[in-house]
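Q&A FORM
Asked by: J.P.
Topic: structure of Calcineurin-like phosphoesterase domain-containing protein

PROVIDED:
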Amino acid sequence: MQTFTALRLLILIAVAVSEAFTAPAQVTLQAPATSQASNARKLTGRFLHITDMHPDPHYKPHTSIYKSCHRKNPKKKRDRAGFWGTPFEECDSPLRLTDFTLRYLDKHWSSEIDFVIWTGDNARHDEDRKIPRTTDEIYDLNRAVAKKMEKIFLNKGIPVIPSIGNNDVWPHVIFFVCDSSIPG
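REPLIED BY: S.T.
REPLY: Here is the structure written out as tokens.
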């Protein structure tokens, strides 16, 4: 039985490795040739890495950090969600924070970078059982962040190298389905 299980595990690993090597190459998002950025940009030797923004359209300031910052007004101030977010708690980012951050980058940094590495996680975590994530929400949040990347960077001729994060897919956090009977 152990030999059979080990063989199944070996086959599973072989399939995963072969899929990794046969996946299509990563494609950099480039600004259209007709954009206002057709002038050559002076290279600075700097790049920007944007990741794990986790914008949450359901975030509400002053709600409970124990309810994903979505509902209930706790009595203790330390248990309340902040206006600009709640670091180190089980809450994702309020839209006002992600929007402010991207506007700040646009105003203060977009002229100082050569390219952007954008490694996803543009959707909120699925921590709130009363407000479960839907595929529409995931796709809408991905589209909204992509439009902002286009406006802030691509339209200025700054290439964006995207990658999908584990929270940008459905089902949540799952990239590879495997046989759960295989011992881990």
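FOLLOW-UP: The mean pLDDT is 82.
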